[in-house]
Design brief:
Number of strands: 0
Distance between the termini: 47 Å
Strand content: under 5%
Helix content: over 70%
Oligomer: single chain
Order of helices and strands: HHHHHHHHHHHHHHHHHHH
Shape: globular
Number of helices: 19
Radius of gyration: 21 Å
């Protein structure tokens, strides 16, 4: 009963409950990001305690990234069929359980089961499609801005948790470092049950920005299990789907799998401690929250293809420059600003291009498949960068490959047709 009372109180204040839903979704995606990024800080401590190689740990973390993405289109269907509040609460419980059980693991097989499979499933249910589902369902206006904010939550997860996690590792060991993320996951579990609602009509509301006087819209019919595969079969016949998927594969290759997973280890190889390296990652998170939110604002007003051209191009140049930064705090701070503003800024324009091409009804599921390509790229980079370090004793080849791929993405994205602009806001 708390949600209806809060909705009524906010209505008297002129505030739509959609903003509460957006805030809860932001928090859930933030904790998911923290859980995904946590193993990157644990790579060296786990290797030191158990003797596992970088390649072995990278293979475990690659499975987590692959599942996080491959579950995306099915997560969209599950969210539509069984409800956002119920499924996100279950996902939070799974994430907390996977991390808590990890305290007791002592073999690589257990790490694979807990932090590869179970953590991959838990985070996959709250993948980026959650943000797309909420934005499309609860907002008519400000949709791009909301999607930008929700996408930026993945960076904020690093900003909030990573420095604390690294400090706990140094002071008390890696097991205690799991505690903040476990506690946050349990907090999300409780908040979802108390305040999250699946559809505006559950609170006798329309979506934010719906025309005044419009009848309350009922929820769409429940999705069936065949929807993701039917959507993939249909979308795969459209060339623009493959352009979006290829560019997002490169996006994952150059962000989550490479920098999020290996940055602390990369800095350690170049003489920078874990705490300063985590601080640089947090700085990236801060700038990415700004950049991704701004990207959502810009995607409502400008040609999304041109935005993506600049995002991928500038990211590629920053990755080429990173090995020559000398890994000083000044050099890495420059990289954090340049790269951080662009980290997840690709999400809002990609969501908009998918919606323009395939329609708002199918946009969440189509984006789920595009996001699956993103996480396959992340998994490839997670394993490939670890292999590069083990075999060549350097991360530099992986950085150059990712940088070159970004320049390729900047070129292929321009093959898309521009998204249809809003009548009141001409495309520029």
């Amino acid at each position: 009963m708390l949600a209806p009372r809060l909705a009524l109180y906010l209505k008297h204040l002129g505030i739509h409950y959609a903003w509460v839903i957006a805030a809860l979704t932001f928090l859930a995606m933030l904790v998911t990001s923290a859980a995904l990024g946590l193993p990157g800080a644990l790579m060296q401590p786990l290797g030191q305690e158990f003797g596992w190689t970088t390649t072995e740990l990278s293979s475990v973390f690659a499975i987590r990234f692959a599942l996080y993405g491959l579950l995306g289109p099915f997560a969209a269907m599950v969210l539509m069929r069984y409800g956002v509040s119920r499924m996100v609460a279950i996902a939070a419980a799974v994430i907390a359980s996977a991390l808590l059980l990890g305290v007791f693991m002592h073999s690589l097989g257990q790490a694979f089961a807990l932090w590869g499979l179970l953590l991959g499933v838990g985070t996959g249910l709250t993948a980026m499609v959650l943000g797309a589902t909420v934005a499309n369902r609860w907002f008519v206006q400000r949709k791009g801005l909301v999607m930008g904010l929700l996408a930026g939550s993945s960076a904020t997860g690093q900003l909030v948790f990573l420095p604390l996690v690294v400090w706990l590792i140094e002071q008390y060991g890696w097991r205690w470092a799991l505690a903040p993320v476990i506690a946050a996951s349990l907090g999300v579990f409780v908040l979802m049950l108390l305040f999250m609602r699946d559809h505006p009509s559950d609170l006798k509301l329309n979506a934010y920005g719906a025309p005044a006087g419009e009848p309350i819209q009922p929820p769409a019919a429940k999705a069936d299990w065949g929807l993701p595969l039917r959507t993939l079969a249909s979308a795969s016949r459209v060339p623009s789907f493959w352009v979006l998927a290829a560019s997002f594969f490169i996006c994952g290759l150059s962000t989550n799998g490479l920098i999020q997973t290996h940055f602390i280890s990369l800095c350690g190889d170049n003489g920078l401690g874990a705490v300063p390296a985590a601080s640089v990652l947090s700085m990236m998170g801060l700038f990415d929250l700004v950049g991704t939110t701004l990207s959502g604002y810009l995607s409502d007003r400008y040609d999304s293809r041109k935005l993506l051209f600049w995002y991928y191009g500038l990211r590629g140049l920053s990755l080429f420059w990173l090995p020559y930064s000398e890994f000083t705090l000044v050099g890495l701070s420059m990289f954090a600003v340049f790269y951080g503003l662009d980290w997840i800024a690709t999400v809002p324009p990609t969501v908009k291009l998918a919606a323009a091409e395939f329609g708002p009804e199918r946009a969440s599921v189509v984006f789920g498949w595009v996001f699956a390509a993103h996480q396959l790229g992340a998994a490839t980079a997670t394993y490939g960068a670890g292999l590069s370090r083990s075999v060549l004793a350097s991360y530099t080849p992986a950085l150059f490959v990712a940088g070159g791929a970004c320049l390729m993405a900047a070129v292929i994205i321009m093959r898309l047709q521009p998204a249809v602009p809003h009548a009141s806001k001409p495309q520029r």
